[in-house]
UniProtKB/TrEMBL annotation, chains A, B:
It is an enzyme of class 2 (transferase). Xanthine binds at residues 20, 27, 156. Pathway: Purine metabolism; XMP biosynthesis via salvage pathway; XMP from xanthine: step 1/1. This is Xanthine phosphoribosyltransferase.
Amino acid sequence: MNFLEERILKDGIVKDGNVLKVDSFLNHQMDIALFNEIGKEFKKRFKGNKINKILTIEASGIGIACIVAQHFDVPVVFAKKAKSINLEGEMYVAEVESFTHNCKNQVIVAQKFLGEKDHVLIIDDFLANGCALQGLIQIVQSAKATVEGIGIAVEKGFQPGGRIIRNLGIQLESLAIVERMDSTTGEIEFRVQEG
Amino acid sequence: MNFLEERILKDGIVKDGNVLKVDSFLNHQMDIALFNEIGKEFKKRFKGNKINKILTIEASGIGIACIVAQHFDVPVVFAKKAKSINLEGEMYVAEVESFTHNCKNQVIVAQKFLGEKDHVLIIDDFLANGCALQGLIQIVQSAKATVEGIGIAVEKGFQPGGRIIRNLGIQLESLAIVERMDSTTGEIEFRVQEG
């Protein structure tokens, strides 16, 4: 069991409707020391990959992405979810469906921040249905840039996102994959990973 | 002139309608090395303050807040702007008006992450009318916690937010205060600060 799985068992809470609350350390209150452990682990797992940019999506991906970026010494670009009047000029746009908010969002990145020379590591806190990630992949492809890999903190292994993305042939590393959880007992079972 | 003012002169773009675009390094693409300089500077400016938590607001405050937090060795809590089904339990709620989006938002923090023992440094990327900050201050006060200070990257000195907040007697440190800018010439003039 790795450091993140241990932390999820200690502080994560299983709620009805397949909701795993990790808001005390991951996506509302943020444990920066833990994020640095996550960064170290991604640096190890993506060691051979040539990465010059990290891409994430607002809001809860940003904190992890920024701390992880220090381990790769690269800038971070975060995709925005709604059109702002401060976002002008040419933009890449992908449409994604949000599981938690039950609505459709546009994912937007200014074209000047992503181009064909970029080798991108995509970072996010959660992977469930994979809609947000598919939007980010779509944007990297629109930019003719390369997806070097995807680093996720917590994957819900019983939802289809992980399988869909691995089937695209992309290196997807999820530090904790929840295989099964039970809101009545609070039990959480992780997929056994190598290494 | 400090490092951030220099960077704004180099890479910031003045647009019509008093818009200063710093999206190539601050709030869309993020220069993590620059954020670490910002963290170092805030650590210096808030040296005597007892700080055990950083509070920011999604989305563009999160990256700076997380990097700054490393210099204080404290966790970050980010306020959310809309009610999510994953945000449950007791919450502090403040209503704020957004200048850039021309709408009202609720600013929300779960009560369990802010209490009377907390000494809070509020961090954000921009200060203009100060509505978001006033929402965050309101939330800290609802929690009976203490605002130890506010650290801002870029303040628009010709808009009222800075004055309103300094009039509350709060230590507000803005690393770059734009006094005047001109979209026809691209000129930017900063307020002269001591130190």
